[in-house]
Write a structure and sequence with these properties.
The chain is mainly alpha-helical and 193 residues long. 51% of the residues lie in helices and 5% in strands. The strands form two sheets. The chain has a two-stranded parallel ribbon with strand order 1-2. Strands 3-4 form a two-stranded antiparallel ribbon. Strand 3 and strand 4 form a beta hairpin. The longest helix has 25 residues. It starts with a helix and ends in a 13-residue tail after the last helix. 30% of the residues are buried.
C-alpha cells in the first residue's frame, strides 16, 4: 500500500534534537538530530530527550551505533504504526492502491501523529525500564504521572478533564484521515407529502 521511501519520508520529518546536557557521550547521527521539518520530538513532550532515553535503556554502556539504531527504530516503528492507523485500517482505503505518492506529497499531515506516537512510545519505555539509576534520577516522574501523561485524566463522572498523548494521537490520526479520505456529503431529497 506504500513504499519504504514513503515510510522514511514520514519518519525522517521529526528529529530527536541535540542533547540538552553537557557531557552527553553518545555521538548522534545528523539525521537523528534534525528532521526535515526542523521539528523535534521534545516539542511533543518535554521528557522526550535523548538523555532520558539513554538513561532508560537496559544497557548503560550502549555504543553510538546501537543508540542511534534504537532512535531510528523508535521513529520508524511509530511511522509504520500511524500509517497502519491512517491508511491500512481505514475502511475507505483501497487495498490494492499504492498511497506512496499521496504520503510523500503530504508529509506534514503525519507530523503530529508521528510526534505523539513517539512520545507515547518513549514514556512507555520510561514506565517499563528496569534501570535503577533512571528511577532514582527521575523520582518526579512517578509511573502514575506518566500514565496520566499518556492516557489523560477523567473525573468520577467519566468526563475528560485533561487530554493525554493518546487523545492527541487520536486527534492527529483523525485529522490526517479526514484529509486523505474526505467523506463526500450527499444530500438526498425525498418528498415528504
Amino acid at each position: 500500500m506504500y513504499s519504504e521511501n514513503a515510510i522514511s519520508a514520514i519518519a525522517n520529518r521529526i528529529g530527536w534534537g541535540k542533547p540538552q546536557e553537557g557531557g552527553f557521550t553518545i555521538n548522534l547521527d545528523e539525521a537523528i538530530q534534525n528532521g526535515t521539518s526542523k521539528r523535534n520530538f521534545q516539542s511533543f513532550h518535554q521528557l522526550v530527550t535523548v538523555e532520558n532515553i539513554l538513561a532508560a535503556l537496559p544497557d548503560p554502556a550502549i555504543g553510538d551505533d546501537d543508540f542511534n539504531a534504537k532512535l531510528y527504530e523508535i521513529r520508524d516503528n511509530a511511522a509504520r504504526s500511524i500509517l497502519t492507523l491512517i491508511i491500512d485500517l481505514n475502511p475507505n482505503s483501497i487495498s490494492n492502491k499504492d498511497y506512496s505518492s499521496v504520503i510523500t506529497n503530504n508529509p506534514v499531515l503525519f507530523d503530529d501523529a508521528l510526534g505523539n506516537a513517539v512520545a507515547i512510545s518513549v514514556l512507555e519505555l520510561f514506565i517499563s525500564t528496569q534501570r535503577r539509576n533512571f528511577r532514582e534520577r527521575s523520582t518526579q516522574m512517578a509511573v502514575a504521572s506518566l500514565k496520566v501523561e499518556i492516557e489523560g485524566w477523567k473525573n468520577e463522572s467519566g468526563i475528560t478533564v485533561a487530554n493525554g498523548l493518546g487523545q492527541k494521537l487520536d486527534k492527529a490520526v483523525t485529522m490526517a484521515t479526514e484529509k486523505l479520505f474526505p467523506i463526500k456529503k450527499t444530500v438526498t431529497f425525498k418528498q415528504i407529502w
